[in-house]
Amino acid sequence: MSETAYVIGAGINKIMKNKDGLSPPKIDDMFQIALKMKKYEEPMYSQELEEVYEYIKHYWKHDKTFLSAHPFNLEELLSLLDLQYRDGIKENDESKCRKISQIFNKVTRLLGDILSEFWHDDFLESPMRVFGQILYKDKSVIITFNYDTFIERSIEYASMLKDAIPFTFRGGMETPSFAELAYSYWNWNRALAYCVNFNEVVLHQPGIRRYVEGSSFYAHPQNKMYDEVDECYILKLHGSLNWFYYLPISRIPSLSDEPKPTFPEEKKDHTIVSSEDEWTFRSNPYVGEWFVAPIIVPPVVSKLEYVNQGIYQKALQPVWDKAKQVLSNCKRLVVIGYSFPTSDFLTMQLFLEAFSENNLAELIVVSPDPSVVQKVKRLCHFDKDVVAYKDLGELVANLEIT
User: Is the pLDDT of residue 1 over 70?
Assistant: First the structure.
């Protein structure tokens, strides 16, 4: 196990800029970014989002002009919606639950859609690209709270394209051969880096997207989890925009006189790892005949209830357990772009317990906010000098790449 652990929050992405000079959102600037993007001025988006803006105006008295120019805490918004939804359940008010759920889903879909806008921007020359090279070379362990897959993308670029292509590979819909199960477009295969045994796995290969049963994929002798073979791996504590579970809703419309398709019982608790490009605001993601929803813990106060329930627990509990193991044994900790908000006690618990007996040798904190250094020192019981940098650019400039 690597002695260095990286803990990464949304602040790391501020080093990235799209063609309009905008960066991926953090917890307090999602609406500022959305309202600066021309895409969301189009009627198909603005009309869909009007219900969200009306809700914010009703409870916070902020209109779109205010939201476009000032920070607005996404956790406050989603937490209120979450509480009101729970109230609706207690009151047996189906109409209230449906309305609140609709607004909640629009907000989370908007966040995913905004992040997806940056997947297509070129960051090959940015510090994120260099950071990926460092992570891959050092076989680092990454613990992240981010839903996006920018870190995965940077590590894939660093690993380079795989030279050996199975002679049976055609890139079509045909059933993959045994050799093709181990073939990935990149040398670093993200499906093996998450430390989660998914029930269904998309093969990260060129051509038409193909899904295989996780039992077949992980049974291949070359498809060992990266934490088992000393490779760079990533622990996503709040889930990921390319992790999904099935919804019992068919995407294929049926005629009024036809029976509705029956949702397969075996898919009810299936977890799926797919591609980030499944996600858009205007179209629901799907796998095969059925719609799917992302496995992400939204920024609400009651995160513990998400982590401990159903499909979330199945996907995330192994990740949290592994993160505690990593933090309990690391000797060098690098914290980038995470401010440890006091409302996220689940994370505070993780750190306080992991470092109750582990004595760090080195602590590096990357944040433009100097107060974060003291927060991290307290959580890690660290009493030595901290190495601090303002952003990812400063960090990678001071880390050696050989």
Answer: no
